[in-house]
Amino acid sequence: MSRFLDACYRRPTDATPVWFMRQAGRYQPEYRALRAKYDLLTMLRTPEIAVQVTLLPKALGVDALILFADILLPLVPLGLGLRFVPGKGPLLERSLRTVDDIARLQPFPIEEGLGFVLETVRGVRAAEPDLPLIGFAGAPFTLASYALEGGGSRHYQRTKTLMYAHPDAWDRLMRVLTEVTAAYLQAQVQAGAQAVQVFDSWVGALSPAMYRRAVLPHLQRLFSRLADLRVPRIYFSTGTAGWLPDLRSLDVEVISVDWRVDLDRAWAQLGGPERVAIQGNLDPLALLAPRDVLREQVHEVLRRAGGRPGHIFNLGHGILPDTDPDQVRRVVDWVHEATLAV
Amino acid sequence: MSRFLDACYRRPTDATPVWFMRQAGRYQPEYRALRAKYDLLTMLRTPEIAVQVTLLPKALGVDALILFADILLPLVPLGLGLRFVPGKGPLLERSLRTVDDIARLQPFPIEEGLGFVLETVRGVRAAEPDLPLIGFAGAPFTLASYALEGGGSRHYQRTKTLMYAHPDAWDRLMRVLTEVTAAYLQAQVQAGAQAVQVFDSWVGALSPAMYRRAVLPHLQRLFSRLADLRVPRIYFSTGTAGWLPDLRSLDVEVISVDWRVDLDRAWAQLGGPERVAIQGNLDPLALLAPRDVLREQVHEVLRRAGGRPGHIFNLGHGILPDTDPDQVRRVVDWVHEATLAV
After folding, report:
1. CB proximity list for B322: less than 8 A, separation 6 or greater
2. Which helix (H) or strand (E) holds B200?
3. Contact B310/B273 with Cβ under 8 angstroms?
4. Staple A68 to which of A14, A53, A271, A301, CB 3.0 to 4.6 Å?
């Protein structure tokens, strides 16, 4: 059926599938042309535009599409407000400041708060029935830290002090966000998404002990809730090299690792190809290297994957804005050429 | 002789030694009183003030002092200029922009360029002959990335593109910085420092493969150069949980790990207490937790260290400005009480 979906289930494929986090984005001239006309939030909220952007990477030869959306979108119907400030990234208008703020937080009906995303999913599926579409959402910790810090953060001081000083409020916050995330991903799959990825982009700020105690149980509940959807579930995190073996307790088909680990060693720590598929893990900066160096780096990742079923080639994090689309296309070709079954 | 020095050599001690990265700094009212009168660069460059600041943590009961200095100071005599901009951190006036900039870079005589630091070392030793004094410097990669980026960085784009596209220029840059760092630490020891710590605070941005190829050989040369000094050598890095076993190839007495690893697991990956001492690894944010939670976290670190000779209690990175000095004092007391030989 599909290289990407087969690889998620660790079935043999004719070649290693490849896609890229943020493959629809600022590095593409077609994207920038749209961005010159619309602000980012408008692009995200207008299904016609979001469908068009989601489809852009088809031209690169990727094996899967990922929805054009933002992990922070659910914070809007949660009442926190969201602005994208050029040069500063996303900022919240009303971050969570008190335990009372958290007590007032309530899940919302997905169709009402995020219906435009579901509309985009339906639009992409109608326009492109052949390439699998990956839906996604932010992981509860990553959403919580944004909701508390109000934007990006260096030390996650508000987040960690809440976790330490008000464990009950933290637990409630994580429960609400887990509930929202589960419902959001269910709705995406019902609208047609054929796989889901959960992005825990900032969880590497924690210690392993904090992760095990205050994050992992919520992730376990989240992924259990997604089990009946019968689509591959991917968990992505960065900075978690110190506790990869703990991720074995997650009921997921695929673990996506960042570039700060050797892929073979990470896979072994996660239980190996007998247990879980692995996604990754080229450094996004390698796309800015000279062509020959980039090719070496791609082959290094493939060498460590060892051609075993269950490897999905990807970056260790999202494509950076200064990336040349030709380099992305080359990576797709090299991955396919190097792994094509003869 | 000294708990701290003994532990560096993995000799049994009467209690686990403890000190804190950035223990002389902004969280202290005495420091802030000085900072109200002088700008940071003046404080760093005036031995009388730097001696006074270095000695402040004595009141906390720590087992070692660390020089009040900044890892970026050597960039001044290297011709790059350095300003500390309130709210923005350190910025360079002339960052390295081209391969020619790197070709022109030359080591400098330490006594000439950084004599004030050596004067501070002598001053601290004269004022406090009993507590061991740790000298320090930035690691070559961390200095190089600052010199290239011109300040803090999120993606280390200039650094990595130089590493990829101009490996010879990168190698020259690392050689000059290794030479400067070795000479600087030698001079500190000659002036009286009784241990040295090398701070590789940003090297966790790399992949393990890049680290092994473009960083590790320079660190190996650096620490070999420091072997005849006959003082403990400490290597500190953050974000390197994915390749701790590679650090076994460093000829050092102590490895200092961040809080993103379990101390016992990290120690095992580094070769265990038979091979190397370990320093760490409380999350600096734990100092902002309620007293009981902080105590639990301290005991968790000690439990993982298992009372084996060769553990030096520390944080996983520097103390944060919002820390209450009383919390720091409590940690010192708890570490000593919990580990005191009966």
Report:
1. A157, B27, B288
2. strand B195-200
3. yes
4. A53
pLDDT value of residue A86: 81
Per the CB < 8 A criterion, the answer to whether A257 and A244 are in contact is: yes
Tokens in use for B143? 């200095």
Structural domain for A311, as ranges = 3-339
Does A260 sit within 8 Å of B285, measured CB to CB? no
Is B291 annotated as catalytic?
no
User: Does the active-site annotation cover B70?
Assistant: yes
B308 touches chain A (CB under 8 A): no
> Which residues on B lie below 8 Å from A208 (Cβ)?
260-262
How many CB atoms sit inside 10 A of residue B122's CB? 15
Q: Supply A126's token pair.
A: 């109608």
CATH of the domain at A279: 3.20.20.210
pLDDT digits (tens, 9 = 90+) for A279-312: 999 999 999 999 999 999 999 999 999 999 999 9
- Enter the ipTM: 0.95
Q: Is B209 on the interface with A (CB under 8 A)?
A: yes
- For helices A140-149 and A157-165, what crossing angle results, to 10°? 110
pLDDT digits (tens, 9 = 90+) for B256-299: 999 999 999 999 999 999 999 999 999 999 999 999 999 999 99
| Whether A260 and B266 lie within 8 Å, measured CB to CB | no
Looking at the DSSP assignment, which residues form a beta bridge with residue A89? A85
Please indicate if any CB of chain B lies within 8 Å of the CB of A241.
yes
Neighbouring C-alpha atoms within 13 Å toward the C-beta of B126: 11
Q: How many folded domains does chain A comprise?
A: 1
Cβ of residue B320 closer than 8 Å to a chain A Cβ: yes
How far lies A294's CA from each of A209, A226, B155, B164, in Å? 37, 37, 17, 9
Tens-digit pLDDT string for chain A (342 aa): 699 999 999 999 999 999 999 999 999 999 999 999 999 999 999 999 999 999 999 999 999 999 999 999 999 999 999 998 887 889 999 999 999 999 999 999 999 999 999 999 999 999 999 999 999 999 999 999 999 999 888 899 999 999 999 999 999 999 999 999 999 999 999 999 999 999 999 999 999 999 999 999 999 999 999 999 999 999 999 999 999 999 999 999 999 999 999 999 999 999 999 999 999 999 999 999 999 999 999 999 999 999 999 999 999 999 999 999 999 999 999 999 999 875
Q: Which residues, in sequence order, are bridge partners of residue B167?
A: none
Interface residue of B21, B88, B157, B164 to substitute, partner A, most A CBs within 10 Å: B164
